[in-house]
Amino acid sequence: MELVLDFLGRLVTQFQSPSLAFLLGGIVIAALGSKLEIPDAIYKFCVFMLLMRIGIGGGMEIRAANLTDMLLPAALAIVIGVAIVFIGRVTLAKLPGVRVDDAIATAGLFGAVSASTLAVAVVVLEEEGIAYEAWVPALYPFMDIPALIVAIVLARIHLSRQKSGKRAPVKIWPIVAESLQGSALTALLLGLVLGLLTDVEAVFAGFYDPLFRGFLSILMLIMGMEAYARLSELRKVAHWYAVYAVVAPLAHGLLAFGLGYVAHLLTGFGPGGIILLAVMAGSSSDISGPPTLRGGIPTANPSAYVGASTSIGTPVAIVLGIPLYVALAQALFNP
Q: Which CATH code fits 2-333?
């Protein structure tokens, strides 16, 4: 009962947070028919700034960290990303009115990671005073890339069986290369390398860190407007996608939270790190995932997988997921 009350209290608090306020503000003004437009270049720049800040901070932390502490969480991130896709393949793909390639693409997008949701979670932890290993955001590609690869491979195997009745070989490296070349991962990895190998503390403290929350608020406003716009697309496909988009973020996040707690018992992985791992698992890619899946699974309908992710999945992951994982961590580590 105490856990439920804590979660509800945090949920109310979350509605007062600037990040969620801007997200809801974007939804409201879009619903009211506002003509406000924020250029795509500004959106991409905000994403770049957020990921550079996260990457540089993670790189500086890795420089002083014991790399063996990262091995188990990194392995778990891979397992979680792959598991999410297979879960979608055996659940969503079996539901009536759902095409298999659409379901696999949706699961792939939900297995990949949302940079914006991760950024919101970082801000929440800092506001709550919950310590976390700064290298945890560096687990982003360990979850993101395997999920996208597995989704594309499963979809191509399914389509090749439909056409010829047998499996056709699938080349893995082009999928990896395309994922690594995506703007989101490029920015994050660049930040990691700079933080790890250069003396970047001054520019981090004087530029990237102070601007982080401002850029995040703009990104949340854009995502709110996009979420409402995508609702009309989601109505064109089976309603099961809406159900999946509500249930999957929380189910995936709780799976990751449980595995993160196992890592805590084995290696001392901290509560903040567990929360971030759960947030990454509960998120769905909003930057690198859609173009990768459009190229890798061209037969899949973007209205299904992008609509489910943007219009429902991301708000659920931010509004419900983050307070839930924080409440669980507080119940486990501060009973």
A: 1.20.1530.20
